[in-house]
Amino acid sequence: MTVQLSDEAYAVVEGRHADPFRYLGAHPEDGGTMVRVLLPDAVAVEVIGDNGDVAPLDQAHPAGLFVGPLPGASPRYTLRARFGDTTVELQDPYRFPPILSDFDLYLLGEGTDQRLYDKLGAHPMELEGVAGVGFVVLAPNARRVSVVGDFNFWNPLRHQMRVRGSGYWELFVPGARAGDHYKFDLAGPNGEQLPQKADPLAFAAELRPKTASIVVDATTLPRPRPAPENINALSAPMSIYEVHLGSWRRKEGDQWLTYRELAEQLPAYVRDMGFTHVEFLPVSEHPFDGSWGYQPTGLYAPTSRFGSPEDFCALVDACHAAGIGVILDWVPGHFPDDPHGLGNFDGTALYEHANPMQGRHLDWGTLIYNYGRTEVVNFLTANALFWLERYGIDGLRVDAVASMLYLDYSRPAGGWIPNKFGGRENIEAIDFIRRFNTEVYGKFPHSTTAAEESTAWPQVSRPIEFGGLGFGYKWNMGWMHDTLNYISKDPIHRKYHHGQILFGLHYAFSENFILPLSHDEVVHGKRSILGRMPGDEWQRFANLRAYYAFMFGHPGKKLLFMGSEFGQEREWSHDRSLDWHLLEYPKYSGIQALLRDLNKLYRSLPALHQLDCDPFGFEWLITEDANRNLFAWMRKGNDTRARCLVIVNFSPNVYQDYRVRVPFPGRWREVFNSDSAGYGGTNVGNGGEVRTLEGLVPELSLTIPPLAAIFLTPED
After folding, report:
1. First-to-last CA distance in the chain?
2. Which residues belong to the active site?
3. Eight-state DSSP code of residue 148
4. What class of enzyme is it?
5. Do 207 and 112 sit in the same domain of this protein?
6. What is the pTM (predicted TM-score) of this model?
7. How many CB atoms lie within 10 A of CB 256?
8. Same domain, 543 and 651
9. 535: Cβ contacts below 8 Å, ≥ 6 apart
10. Interatomic CA distance for residues 665 and 185, integer angstroms
């Protein structure tokens, strides 16, 4: 049978048709129904009608185009194809109805689909009684998009997709299933072949260096149990253990622990240490280990380094079972330019800005999201909701917020483009951040968000309706820089830097602050936290004990990076385990015991956490004793007698009969002393309790241990 091919037929055969459904499949023709099938490498094809009748199709083009009449009146049919010596029966993807409804297209076009991940990506489903996978991807400027994978020999002609709405390409692939590997094969605006792309909405990906996406049936994922109620409240204790999953601990052969192995070990350790939360460095899929996850290519996929999405669910569930909240580092500020990723996705700057003065980070060599694009904002906002809904995550810490807020962030003069008012503020990014926080708290009111924001941008953690950005918390980067600078000085010089301890309290309640000693402070030549401590060996460890006690007595929630809790000597390395063997030595196990007791005290004393973010919870008592490097303040809870006196001595001297006024007469209990012998100290202190002196004003006469902090509470 000789078939005269149309231009449309050639467009399909050559892989440049935007809607192959217009040509392929069953179509009325000359009073009957013609079936057109494109099956590359097939040597013969038959069509089987719904009534069981079989008719051969003629090969109309050597690329694998077969054409012939459909037997019977029903539009349903099956194909039988021979590939060499193998004959298979298969369904024609071009006989099935669309995946996206008109309402789906409306929400996607409007950018308000909060469950974007239920529509885009790869979803196992059943259409007209046939099992398969529905694939949907955004590529508005592509000339042609195909899905390629294990189900079609990675041949881009086999499953060419159709475009609908404002650039959403879709196709139901019969016979594809969960576990299949796939990518999208695109022709750009001018018909040029683009690098094959991983699915931006994939729920799983291959282990690097491979880059294919993996079909996951998200409906079968177990739901982690919820975290303890109100674990993120401003009045609740929040002590966060920050963890890089690949280097917390390793097994024999220097191999990563899997999510399930981590689930058996990490939550128990975090609970034993008294932390309330664990914060994972980004778990979204990323190609380069050395980025620590901060250059993600798969925002919707837990990295395959440690297992499957089901395995990640098990880790979250184990944390919640141990009473631990789970926070994820989330990276909506930039992404890498790996060929299989989001960059130049459809042959144009789809997710990023086209102009490198807006679209590329000079520091990191990464691309910047275009927050002025409706589809991009929808993609990012839905991703935040995805982690909270699908995996039961309790909070998101947003990375590098300052780089999002300022158009001139780390750019030279003349190397950036002002906003429409001529200013440096990124108006679209600000709108996105506010929308993100609105959506998160609207859908998950007991969750939280935290901003890593290093500038003086006002009201980061204040309500949007009052002009704020809407975050729950802000990392206090100023406190971290000032206090680490102070503690790194030899005690003899600290009196000249006394203000670095005092200054943070001038703004301590302008935001809801988290005090971070994060991964960023123990890498790139900064040394470990212990490595910053001056003096001989005893002084180094005493300084560290005093500094940690100072941190836990200071207003604000707490965050400590793994390894710091036992005084790791060396800088953190992402490609090896923490130095757990150090705990064989008392000076390191003493630091660990100190952190465990500080966490316990912080959680048990309302005065230390109830008004963490409220100026009524803090009162300076001694600020001007610079010559002694000594500070004292009162922490307060809601109850009148919920009080905790904190005294920190950053000098190596012991001070006898040191007088401090207190609000209540009677006995005050020394509930914590960082100079305890159990922590490696000298056991100088007040014997566990002290009574106020006789007089009109209650006053304590105290013995202040060297390079140490003591906490005292009034007896009931």
Report:
1. 100
2. 399, 452
3. E
4. transferase
5. yes
6. 0.94
7. 18
8. no
9. 490, 491, 542, 543, 652
10. 77
